[in-house]
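User: I'm writing a tutorial on reading structure tokens. Could you give me a worked example: one chain, its sequence, then its tokens, then a sentence or two explaining what the tokens reveal?
Assistant: Sure. Here is the example chain.
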Amino acid sequence: MQIFERLSAKPWILMVLYAAMALFISIRSYQQPLKTMPGYEGGVTTYNNYILFSNSFWHLLEGKNLYAAYPAEQYDVFKYSPTFALFFAPFSALPHSIGLALWNLLNAVVFIIALRQLRLPPVREWGFGLLAIQEAFTTTANSQSNMLIAGLLILAYVQLERGKIWLPVFFIALTVFIKVFGLLFFAMILLYPQRWKCLIPALVSVALLFLLPLPFGGLGRLLQHYREYAVLLAGDHGTFIKYSVMGWLQSWFNLSPDKNAAVLIGLAIQCMPLLFWKRFSNPAFRQVYAASWLIWLVIFNHMAESATFILAVAGVLLWYYAFAERKTWHILLLLPVLFFTCMGPSDIYPKAWRVLIVETWQLKVFPCIAVWLVCIVQLYLPKGVLQAQK
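And here are its predicted structure tokens:
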């Protein structure tokens, strides 16, 4: 414990650790040879997501369909908003070697700033950072945006806790224009006295972010971008299931529920604690509810990939460090998250085991489902049971 106390006197060390990880992965990814993909003539980089993001700005600038396939330029298609394509302009203007490193650094830095803003005791802050680093590694290796989203949502929660209005709604709105599911985190606003004051800032933030790409083709082209985006998202809701509640039900019980029905049921369960308005004054209630939303956003996404789970693991850790005292059963719930959710896809297991853990048995997602259920149960417990961390 003393080592963490000493490290806490130098808060920049955790930031340096994550920044070094981001730079190391960026250099390694950039130097790796191209991969071959079935049905695709060109070679695929290990940082293909960054290529998609970078190309999206030039497609926006040229007035092209952002969501069409461009096999001569990239593998797969862009699945983010026109606003995100515009935000990527500073990275797109740089050589890939530099832009990739800066993009990964941005994700890591925002996440650590969010962690610092939680103002956890030193031991817990370092525990949070170290326990999350494997998932941070996974999402960074895929040059994904999930660590940035996790950081922004945690920052939104922190700012709401401090009575702020504009910053939290802007952070949440920003995630919506990266990945649409961030929209649901607006439910957190309902837990705070400033809830009604947040309405206009939320509308202004969403409208501003929506209209930012307006100079690139005018209103007609912007609306067409969103129509094309809607078509893509509708087509993406196919029969394929990855690591989710739906995938777990199919793997363990051979059940194949309608995905829309499963999401609606999960959403109803997730929103029910909002009826307990008398408990909103309890900081532990608010922290557990924020944690449950971070987990929900992943486990009820039927297309959730391994790189998405930094959100869920951040939620698990936010829950784990929410209490004044942690009991043995808290630790027993955390361990499967570490060994299967975080480490399941890693090289500590033989390849055959990794397939069993992550895909066949759905143990990538199940520990997060278990923690989410515990969060919901705790929110239903009698007032006064939840005690905030000190």
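What the tokens reveal: Residues 96-117 form the longest helix (22 residues). The two ends are 16 Å apart (CA to CA).
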